[in-house]
Amino acid sequence: MLLSFFSEDKIEAGCDEAGRGCLAGPVVAAAVVLPHDYKHKVLNDSKQLSRKQREAIRLDVEKEAIAWAVSFVDNNEIDEVNILNASFLAMNRAVDQLETQPELLLIDGNRYKPHNEIPFECIIKGDGKYLSIAAASILAKTYRDEYMYKLAKEFPAYQWESNVGYPTKNHREAIRSHGVTDYHRKSFRLLPEQLELF
């Protein structure tokens, strides 16, 4: 079972992002404040769950959470500030949107760049340890996937309905054959032997 909280007497928000390693699309972050007594039998790191499970848990989290928010940072902004800063930016924006002000942030991973006075704890593999971070990972992943499924209809060659922008063999082959879209991250190494694409 994942832990319900880090600190017994503080309002905590779990934060996580999705899409950092993708070649196309936004990086998406979520922040979630759960009740201290929140329980869920299946909730875990989003990577351990099926799409169907993630979608069911998302509905439960949105219904039961004290507060939750999701934020997108698009590929153009990623190219401007770099992916690490874009991930921090997405988390900061998600936290800013919360209707309940957290007293502690639980950040998945080993680094965070705060933009306000809220204390934080970085927790490596936190989405497999704390319910609030796992809930944030589910929201970030499902909202991002949903967005990429819509884009896939517009750009079927890249197979985003299955790879959601990650650097799969099929995705790279499509870039080689069709070039890049307005949704690709130009600052990323899109092909192993970077061809002149632009």
From TrEMBL:
GO cellular component, one term: ribonuclease H2 complex
One of the GO biological process terms: DNA replication, removal of RNA primer
Catalytic activity: Endonucleolytic cleavage to 5'-phosphomonoester
Subcellular location: Cytoplasm
EC numbers, comma separated: 3.1.26.4
Limits of the RNase H type-2 domain: 10-198
Presence of the UniProt keyword Nuclease in the record: yes
NCBIfam families: PRK00015.1-3
Protein name: Ribonuclease HII
Organism: Fulvivirga sediminis
Classification of source organism: Bacteria, Pseudomonadati, Bacteroidota, Cytophagia, Cytophagales
